[in-house]
Amino acid sequence: MSVSAARIPIWARACSLVWLALWTPVYWHVWGAENFLHVCDIAVILTCVGFIFSNSLLLSSQAVSSILTDLLWDLDAGWRFFTGHPLTGGTNYMWDAHYPLWARLLSLFHIVWPVILIASLLRVGYNRRGLALQSTIAAGALIAARFASSQDNINYAFRDPLFHRSFGVAPLHLAIIWLGLVVLIYLPVHLVLSKFPPRTGWNSGGNPSPGVSTLPKI
Predict the structure, then answer these.
(1) How many C-beta atoms surround the C-beta of residue 217 within 10 A?
(2) N or C: which terminus of the chain carries fewer CB neighbours within 10 A?
(3) What is the radius of gyration, based on Cα positions, of the chain?
(4) Domain boundaries, the chain
(5) Axis-axis angle for helices 10-31, 39-52 (nearest 10)
(6) pTM greater than 0.85
């Protein structure tokens, strides 16, 4: 397969554009602009952009960000659904009647997002620079979240998810949360995805091999 052929199908790119056009205004209306500081919601936007442009680097970075975190979201929501008790409380909003049910149901994208990302990487290949890019995005999102409401605790920028406490002054707390994300969430996913066979025409770093055209077919 040539590099030019390793693209997301046009129907999938169209679906991602439709999803972005639907999901973005709904989330903005129901949860407000600050909600888009969440790393998981940034991932939705960047994944859709990655789909639209068949961008291996963007899709790889958001796979690093989303696959394990979405599975943890699924576990938390499933635990609450079957037992009636929260596991970590991260999905409590799904049972909050203050928010419209149809808006809460949109969050079920967490169930299919890992499958979508893995399928896309099997097509366009995993770019190993995705870990560095996502680590940088997470750092920016954490810093920005510190300027949001402490009550919302977006990205756990004020209190950690397990002990619900602050790790000292803001720079230290943010550094610990960021390091936890990179080491416990991103790095394991990166190591697994790095085992994916590279697409024909791409080298092991996820870059076009010399002499191979990257122009799309017309």
Answers:
(1) 8
(2) C
(3) 18
(4) 3-193
(5) 150
(6) no
